[in-house]
Structure formats: structure tokens, C-alpha cells
Amino acid sequence: MTDPRTDSTDVVLDNDVAIDHGGAGDLHAVKRTGQLGSNVRSVIKHILMIAAALLMIYPLLWMLVSSFRPTEEIFRDSGLVLTSLHLENYTEGWTALQYPFSRYLINSMILVLGCILGNVISCSLAAYAFARLRFKFKNIFFAIMLLTIMLPMHVIIVPQYILFSQFGWVNTFIPLVLPKLLATDAFFVFLMVQFIRGLPKELDEAARIDGCGHWKIFSRVIMPLMTPAIATTVIFTFIWTWNDFFSSLIYLTSPEMFTVPLALKSFLDSTGGSNWGAMFAMSIVSLIPVFLVFLFGQKFLIRGIATTGIK
Predict the structure, then answer these.
(1) pLDDT of the residue at 33
(2) 131, 189, 190, 213: least CB-packed within 10 angstroms?
(3) Are 80 and 65 spatial neighbours (Cβ–Cβ below 8 Å)?
(4) Membrane spanning segments where (predicted)?
(5) Is 80 exceeded by the pLDDT of residue 122?
(6) How far apart (Å, rounded) are the C-alpha atoms in residues 297 and 232?
């Protein structure tokens, strides 16, 4: 005879196993459903991000496609499909103005290099003073410097123009480069101050024990460690100066001194026919240096922004 208690226990165990198997199956089903939902959300998110990216770069793609179209067809077709390829916009645009387009590229490059040199030297020195030196009213001067970030450039452009005009510097690069040598870009000073404050002061103390003064500490200890902040300054200065139209329009009056933005404006004629195809072609050419600088410098740019706490 079988023991009724044993049978009862077996039945209970079988029921428990069945319940366990049933619970595990439900758990797997819930996990599969959750994983499926996560995958669906990820796919939808990526589709939306790709659509947003295409929407943002559509003007650039349209300009690139339009640079290969005849001028009379550019505004008749808003699509991105080329029916024919016309390279004459690039050859005509290069020589369409009073000087070859290479002249304006060289002018822009000279201006950009001067501004980069001025910003790196002057802003790093000012940042070292604010971050490491002790002097009276340092906090007040630092606050005033930060307030200048909120001051619109248009407020000072008139008195600045009168001053530079009396010096006879209009139609030269001096009014555009000289302010950079005086650490007037407070944003870069603030960025470098934040970076230097993150460096251990023990490095300064060790250098001072070895007999270094402030100049040697700055040039041999601080500057080599500031590569990310300097790279960020170089990249932003390059992009902002290369694309600056307003300041060049104010101070540069002769076509031989024109920078790239002013040269591109010269393709448009409000009284006659504008050469849109050539302008779009030279716009693509002028974007290449900016694209290359950002492509090779983005690693330093991200590191510089991350290490200075500026987001």
C-alpha cells in the first residue's frame, strides 16, 4: 500500500515544480516582452535622431547639390537629386571677382592666425594671473571681466571704430587682431582660469623649490598641461574669426583686403543678376578648412570642455 502522506507530499512537490516552471515561463515571457519593448523604443529613437540629423544638415546638402547646378535651375528644384553635373560653377567662381578666390582665402588665413596667436598668448597669461597670483581687487577685476561676456559687441563698435580710424588703421587687419592681443575675449580667459584651477598647486610649489619664478612656472609647468584648453581656444577662435562677417565689413573697405565672408557677399548683386551657383561653389570651398579643423580637433575640443566644466 502506498502511504497517503507520501502521495500527498509528491502531489504538493509536483504542484510546486509546476508552479516554479510556470513562474519561470512567465518571467521569461515578461523579460522577452520587456526586451522587445526596449528594442522597439531604441529603433524609434534612432529613426527620430536620423530624421532630425537629416533635417539639420539639409541646408548644407542642398547647398552642396546646388553648387553643381546651373544658376537658373537652383531655386526651381529643392530636391537633393542631381540630374546633371556642372563643374563650371567652381572654375567660374574661383576667378569671377576682382581677385582670385585664393587671395581671400589667404587674407582670412592671415587674420585667423593672428587672432589665434593673440588669444592663446594674452588669454593664457591673464588666466594664470587670475588663477594663481594674489593681488588687490582680484575678485572685482575677475567679476568685471565676466560681465564683459554679456556686453554686446555692437555697443563698443562705434567708439572702437572712431579710435582705430583716428590711428589710421581702417582697411588693415590691425583693428581685428590687436584686441585679441589684449585678452578681450573673456570667454577664453574664463575657460583657461577654470582649467588652471583644476591643476594641483603642488606642481607650482615643487617648481618654486627648484628656483622657478612665475614666468618659468607658467611657461614650463602650466602651459604644457593646458593643451586641451589651448586647443579649445584655437578651434573656437578659428571658427568664429573665419566666419566673422560684421567686423570685416566694418574695417575692411578695399577688395584686396577682403576676407572670405566679404568675398562671398560680392557674388550677390542687388541691382542685377546674382551668380548663385558660383557663390554656392565657393561657399563649399570656404567650408573645407572649418570642417578639417573641427574633424582633427574635436577630440581636444571635447576634452577641453569636459575638463574646464564649461558645458
Answers:
(1) 76
(2) 213
(3) yes
(4) 47-65, 104-128, 140-164, 176-196, 217-242, 276-296
(5) yes
(6) 8
C-alpha distances out from residue 276 to 153, 267, 273, 290, Å: 31, 7, 9, 21
Q: Show contacts of 289-295: CB within 8 Å, 24+ apart.
A: 289/105, 289/109, 289/238, 289/242, 290/238, 290/239, 290/242, 290/243, 293/235, 293/238, 293/239, 294/235, 294/239
Cα dihedral 202, 208, 214, 219 sign = negative
- 76-88: pLDDT as tens digits: 877 888 877 888 8
Whole-number Å distance between alpha carbons of 202 and 212 = 13
Q: How far apart are CA 15 and CA 211, in angstroms?
A: 84
Detail the DSSP E strand segments found in 81-181. Answer: none
Q: Please give the single-letter amino acid code of residue 238.
A: F
Amino acid at residue number 147? L
Q: What are the counts of helices (DSSP H) followed by strands (DSSP E) for the chain?
A: 15, 0
User: How far apart are alpha carbons 101 and 263 in whole angstroms?
Assistant: 8
Rounded Cα gap, residues 141 and 134, in angstroms:
12
Cα distance between residue 278 and residue 231, in whole Å: 34
The fold for domain 99-309 equals MetI-like fold (1.10.3720)
Check pLDDT > 80 for residue 17: no
pLDDT digits (tens, 9 = 90+) for 213-251: 999 999 999 998 988 889 889 999 999 999 999 999 999
Burial label, 101 (beta-carbon count in 10 A; 0-12, 13-18, 19+): buried
The answer to whether 111 and 259 have CB atoms below 8 angstroms apart is: yes
Give the residue extent of every domain in the chain.
39-85, 99-309
How far apart CA 300 and CA 294 sit, in angstroms, is 10
Q: What is the pLDDT of residues 145-198, one digit of tens each?
A: 888 888 888 888 889 999 999 999 999 999 999 999 998 889 999 989 989 998
